[in-house]
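Problem: given the chain below (195 residues), write out its structure.
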Amino acid sequence: MSSEQEKLKQQTKQQLDRLLKQLQDVEDCKEELDSEEEYLEIKKETLSQLEEFQKTLEHLNKSLKIDEIRSYQLAIKAACSEAFKTPQVIKLFAEKDVNQIKIKLEQLEVEKTHIGQEIYNFKKSELLSALRKLNPSMLSEDDLRFLNQNMTNQMKGLFDNSSTTTTNNTNNNNDDFDSSINVQQSVHHLLQKKK
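Solution.
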């Protein structure tokens, strides 16, 4: 990989990290916002930025064929379809970090008695779905049975069609990065104003 491709890969990862942190900030500040409507509006704007970023990645991937960009695209697809709702899981999925996903599963088992069954089922399904997509051989028969019983339609959709939609995107990549950063700053400002 050329140094230019390596730099682009690093910038792409940084932008994805920023957007996922923004998504996490929105979730963390949900209770501090004035209304559910305001929360949904800010979240929708963040998801819109992720979709815009995905279009940029599709354009980049057409010309560069960098494996990490493909995994970022799939992670963004999971976030935008709300197959994965937890920003940390989305990040681990994008980074293909199966070891951390396994650790999160172990931590979830410890927390099981402290959270409701519905939350436990969703979080476990989310983590197992990520593992299934990244390395299906890591799942036991019990894991697969659990997934079949608890996987959401959005998660199922992630497996039914793993290809991303190709679109023509002729925007300047730097403009996309800049606009995403500007929107991120606007959302951060809105969240700070509420504190």
